[in-house]
Design goal:
Helix content: over 70%
Number of helices: 2
Oligomer: single chain
Strand content: under 5%
Length: 48
């Protein structure tokens, strides 16, 4: 589930960069959230 959310957020971020349409810092917040979710997934995967 975390992987799918992270992928969606990354795709939205890339679309925001490509279309040059940004809502202030919203696109960058999406990127940070996606990276954090990916890191959590990696950490949890290794600890199990």
């Amino acid at each position: 589930m975390l992987e799918s959310i992270a992928v969606v957020l990354i795709i939205l971020w890339i679309l925001g960069l490509v279309s040059s349409y940004t809502l202030g810092g919203f696109v960058h917040i999406l990127l940070v959230v996606a990276v954090v979710l990916i890191l959590l997934r990696v950490i949890r995967g290794r600890s199990l």
